[in-house]
C-alpha cells in the first residue's frame, strides 16, 4: 500500500509537470532523453517514463508544491488507515507478567496460603507486606527462601524467577525479632560472624548472610558442618576463590567447587585437593586465567617434562614459575623452543646461547628481539639466522639491513625480502639479483629485466602461449 501511494505521488508530480509544459506540449522529449534511467525508475510502477527535471529553465518545478501534495495525501491515507487498521496489541514485558506463589512452612512443608496474581515487578519487601496482610506474620519476622536463595528486601521477583515460572513455591521461616535484627546486622556488615556464638555460626541462614556481606571471608568462622555445605561453600568461593582453603576436604575435592574458586581466583588451585592439582584440565583452566597458577600445581606435575613442555608451549611465561630442574635443562628448553620460539623471552640465562637463539628464530623470526644484544649485532650470527629463517631479515635493525651481503643472502632465499633492505642499498640489491637470475638462464647478454620466457618456471607458459598463436 505504501509503495502504491509513493508511486501515485510521483505520478501526480509528473502529471503536474506535464500541465506546466510550455505550448501544451507533452513532457517527454523536453527534458531528459527517453533512455534516462532516473526517469524510467520513477515511472516504472505505472508503466510510464517521465522526466523529473528539464534542461529548459521555464520548466523547472517548485518542489514546495509537491511537498504540499504529499502532506495532503499522507493525511488522507492516515485517516483511511485509522478507520480500517486495528490498533497494535501492547507489548507485554516479562517483568509485567504475574505469578502464582505457594507459601509453605520451611520446616514442616505445610501450605500456609496461596498468593495469586503477584507481579514479577514487585520487590521482596512488597511481597512480605502482602504476606503480612494475608497470612498474618509480621514482615520483620519473615525469612523467605526462593529455592536455596535468601533474597534481600530490595530484590525484584523478576530476578528470582524465570519466565517459565507460573507457579512458584516460596518457603517461609518465622524468626524472632532478635534473630531478624541479627540477620539485618550481618547483611549490613555491622556484625561479623566471628563475634557470634557457636549456635549462630551453625545457623545456615545467618552464615549465608555473613558470607555475602564479607565477600566470602566469613566461611572461615562457620561451623564444620556448614563449611562442608556445597551451597554455602559455592557462595563463598564465587566471591573469594581463596576461601576454598576454609572448606572441608570433601568440598576441596569437589570439581564444581574448585572450578568456581579458580574462575574467581586462579591461585585457589593451591587449596584444591591434591588429586585435582594433578588434573590436566583443572590446571590448564587455572593457567589460562593466570600463568602464576603454575606455582600451585603439584610438584610431580611441575617435574613432568612432557606436561611442562605442553604448558610452556601454550603459555611461555610459565617458564618463570617452574623449578630449575625444568628451566635449567638444555634439552627441555630446546624442545620447548621448537614448538614456540617466543618462549626464548622467558628463558632466563639462555639469551646468549647461539643454539637456543637460532632454534627460537627458526620457529619464530621475531624471537631475535630476545637474543642478547651483543650476540645479535654479530654478522656471523645474522648470517646463521638468515640461513635458518630468511624472514628474520625483516626483524633486523638498520645495522644488518644495510649490509649488502646479508640483504643479498635474504633476498636470494625470499625475493620479497629485498623491500626491507636499507634504502641506500635496495637498488643495488635488486640489480644484482636480476643479473644473477639472467645469468642462470639463457638470456641475451646484458639483459637484466625479468622475469621473461627463458627464466626457469615460465617456459611451459611461454610454449602454451606460442602454441595458441
What's the short version?
The protein is α+β, with helices and mostly antiparallel strands. The protein has 22 helices and four strands.
What is the secondary structure topology, with strand pairs?
Blueprint: H1 2-19, H2 37-43, H3 63-84, E1 98-105, E2 111-119, H4 124-134, E3 142-145, E4 167-174, H5 177-188, H6 198-201, H7 204-213, H8 230-237, H9 249-252, H10 255-264, H11 280-289, H12 299-302, H13 305-314, H14 324-327, H15 330-339, H16 354-363, H17 373-376, H18 379-388, H19 398-401, H20 404-413, H21 423-439, H22 459-468
Parallel strand pairs: 1-4
Antiparallel strand pairs: 1-2, 3-4
SSE order, one letter for each helix or strand: HHHEEHEEHHHHHHHHHHHHHHHHHH
Low-confidence stretches: 16-61, 77-85, 458-466
* SS-based class: alpha+beta
Q: How would you sum up the major sheet? A: 4 strands, mixed
Question: Can you walk through the features of this model?
Answer:
With 469 residues, the protein is an alpha+beta fold. It is built from 22 helices and four strands. The protein has a four-stranded mixed β-sheet, covered by helices on one side. The two termini are 61 Å apart.
Features:
469 residues; alpha+beta; four-stranded mixed β-sheet; 22 helices; 6% strand; elongated
